[in-house]
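Input/output pair, single chain:
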Amino acid sequence: MQVAEKIQSLEHLSQVELVGALDKYLGAERRLLACFILYLIEFDRRKIFRELGFSSSYHWMTNGLGMAESGAVRRMNAARIMVRYPQMAQMIFSKIMNGQLSLMVISMIFSHVNNDNCVELMEQVSGKNRLEVEKFLANRIEGYHAMQSARAWMRVLPGASVQNEMASSRGSEAIPLPINEADAKLEANAGLVGADRQRVADRVATPAVQTPGPAIRLAVTLVGEGAKDLLRLRELYPYRDPSQIIHDALGLMRKARDLPASRVPKAIQRQVFVRDASQCTFVSDDGRRCSERGRLQIDHILPLAKGGDDRPENLRLLCAAHNQMMAERHFGKDFMRDKIASGKH
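Output:
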C-alpha cells in the first residue's frame, strides 16, 4: 500500500482508535529502543565495530547505520551508564520502556553521575522534561550554567573564504568589533590611543587569514584558565587579531599531534603518513576501509617481537582500535589485556 493510500485509510478511525494506535506504536518504539541499548552494550563489549571497519561503536552507528550524531551519542551514553553502574541497569531499562526516562535526559546527567548519587539522581530526573532537568541540575550542581555556556557553537561554511565570511556577516562596510571592558583594558596596557587604536580596530575588522577555502564561524565562551590564557595572549600580542591567535594555537596543537609517539624515526613516520593518506588502513572483509583520521598509530605488520623491522613496507597506519585488534590477533586477547592492565599501575 502506498503512503498516500495508507494515510487516506486512516481517515475513518475514531479519535479513540487513533489515540490508541499512537500510544501502542510509541510503546513499541520505546521497547525497541531499550532492547537496542542492551544489544549495543554487548556489541561494544565485543568491539565488533572493528571487524566491520569502524573505529568505534559511535562511528558504526553514524556512518554504518546512517544514524544522526545526536542519536548515536545518546545511545552510547545510555549504554555506558548502564555498564558503569550495573545497579542502575534494570532501573534505566524499565524507565526507558515506560517512558519515564528519555535518552536526552540520560545524556544531560551523564557527566554528573557517580557511585554515590547514581540511584538518587536517576530517581530525581525520572519523568522530567529537558527544562525541568536543567533547573534541577542548576540548583544541585555549582557552576552548572557556566559549564553549559562554555559549550562551543560552530558552523562550517564550505566554499567560502574567511574574508568573504567576515564581510557577509557585517555587510559591505568594514565595522570594527565592539570594544568591551576587557578590550579597553588591553588597549590601555598596550598604550593605544587615537590613530593607533583605529589601526588596531581596522586590523580586527579584517581577519589576518585571508586564504581561500572553507570558513568556520565559531562562538565559544571560555571560563577559568581558558579565559585567562586568551586575555594573556591578547596582552602579549595586542596587534594580532583574536582569530589569528586561535589559528596559531590550533596549528601548534596539530603539529604536536601530527606524528604519534613512536620509536620509528620521524622521517619514516612522515613517509608512512603520506603513503597512507593520514587514514587508518584497516579494511573489513566486505572491503570497507576504516575512515578514522584521529588517534592514528604506527603499526608493525610483522611485530618487532616476531622479527619485524622499521622499514616503511613493514609499517602502516591504524587507529587505536584496530591497532589493538591486530595486537590481539598476534599475541592473544588475554596477553594484551594483562599488558594494558599492568601499564596502568
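Confidence is low (pLDDT under 50) at residues 160-209. The chain has three domains: 15-149, 153-257, 266-343.
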